[in-house]
Design brief:
This protein is mainly alpha-helical. Helices cover 58% and strands 9% of the residues. Strand 1 and strand 2 form a beta hairpin. Helix 3 runs antiparallel to helix 4. The longest helix is centred in the N-terminal third of the chain and has 19 residues.
Length: 86
């Protein structure tokens, strides 16, 4: 589980830095550049969901979007989350 979290964080920062350093995206706002980062990445047969992106976007404009968290954070890894609280 820790490996999954570390790996997803590393991928997020790598992808975000690639998008952020792109000269074409320098004029975009933080939110717009974050939207360009993919929601997930597939490595072999493992799909890694970008939970950090979803958490940041769920808190935009001072409004918390709990449905986005359920849809993009909880449900893709429901078995993992349920296993944490047993």
């Amino acid at each position: 589980m820790k490996t999954l979290i570390v790996l997803s964080a590393g991928i997020f920062f790598c992808l975000f830095s690639l998008v952020h350093n792109n000269p074409l995206s320098r004029d975009l706002s933080f939110r717009d550049s974050l939207l360009l980062v993919s929601d997930s990445i597939k490595v072999d047969n493992i799909v890694i969901h970008n939970l950090f992106k979803s958490q940041i976007l769920a808190h935009q404009n001072g409004v918390y979007d709990s449905l986005m968290i359920v849809k993009k954070v909880y449900r893709p890894h429901q078995q993992l989350w349920d296993g944490c609280y047993e």
